[in-house]
């Protein structure tokens, strides 16, 4: 039915990411708050995270990891009211410089036009009031994160373009587009840790990690949802070892890290006049500005 946003008429926010768990640290609290506000959510993951860690061989093997991570994502999202989880079926490309980069099935090698067409069809079918996805930084430059950003940056204007193939659905202009962000200062502090995930990065890459706090549009207070957010993170069991990813940090610091989530509004991709029903600005209202929340206690 043209003009209808979603079959149940509730405003819908669409999230497009690359791997199961991309949403966990940066958006689980926001998802919980959207659920509380009565907003429907749809999450699309372009891959099943087949190149991810396997924390224990009791729960996954290299052969089963994709299927296990799909179940982990569905379970994690059920905790925050996201019951519509979709996959585009590409393969995880792995971290930059790993052998998985060369797999012809990997997402970052997928034909660009094909990925964009899939995204256009999803946007036109879902008709979201807002889209949340990766910015150009991909948080830390993972090839799949950057590929998601490029595909969505092309798909959002194409979805609104009546000249695009009608077989992909009726044109739809997304009112507002937001990029998930992590303050640069925070990621750089993490890069200093010799056992951290960014230990192999070059100084050049480290200098460009994340988003400068001054460029962040919205900081969303999710401190009331910290415990729920930790359950979402732990639901991705293949990706978190014994005690969780922050087990060696003081509790106070963990709580500070989990309490705020960050978004950058894309002026280029959002429709000029936005939509008064967009729930995101309301979530950020009353939160402390991004720059004041960056340094954990
Ligand atoms: Zn990822």
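-> sequence recovered:
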């Amino acid at each position: 039915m043209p003009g209808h946003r979603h079959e149940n008429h509730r405003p819908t926010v669409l999230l497009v990411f690359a791997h199961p768990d991309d949403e966990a640290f940066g958006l689980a609290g926001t998802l919980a708050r959207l659920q509380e506000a009565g907003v429907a959510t749809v999450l699309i993951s372009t891959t099943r995270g087949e190149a991810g860690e396997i924390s224990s061989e009791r729960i996954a093997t290299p052969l089963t990891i994709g299927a296990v991570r799909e179940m982990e994502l569905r379970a994690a999202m059920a905790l925050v009211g996201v019951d519509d989880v979709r996959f585009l079926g590409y393969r995880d490309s792995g971290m930059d410089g790993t052998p998985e980069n060369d797999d012809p099935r990997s997402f970052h090698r997928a034909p660009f036009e094909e990925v964009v067409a899939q995204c256009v069809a999803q946007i036109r079918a879902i008709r979201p009031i807002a889209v949340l996805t990766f910015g150009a930084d991909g948080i830390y430059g993972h090839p799949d994160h950057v590929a998601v950003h490029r595909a969505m940056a092309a798909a959002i204007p194409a979805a609104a373009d009546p000249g695009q193939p009608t077989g992909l659905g009726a044109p739809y202009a997304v009112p507002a587009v937001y990029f998930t962000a992590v303050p640069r200062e925070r990621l750089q502090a993490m890069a200093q840790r010799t056992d951290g995930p960014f230990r192999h990065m070059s100084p050049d890459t480290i200098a460009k990690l994340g988003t400068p706090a001054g460029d962040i549009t919205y900081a969303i207070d999710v401190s009331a949802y910290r415990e729920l957010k930790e359950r979402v993170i732990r639901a991705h069991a293949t990706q978190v070892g014994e005690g969780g990813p922050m087990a060696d940090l003081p509790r106070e610091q963990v709580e500070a890290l989990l309490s705020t989530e960050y978004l950058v509004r894309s002026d280029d991709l959002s429709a000029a006049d936005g939509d008064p029903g967009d729930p995101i600005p309301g979530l950020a209202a009353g939160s402390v500005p991004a720059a004041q929340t960056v340094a954990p206690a």
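The radius of gyration is 18 Å.
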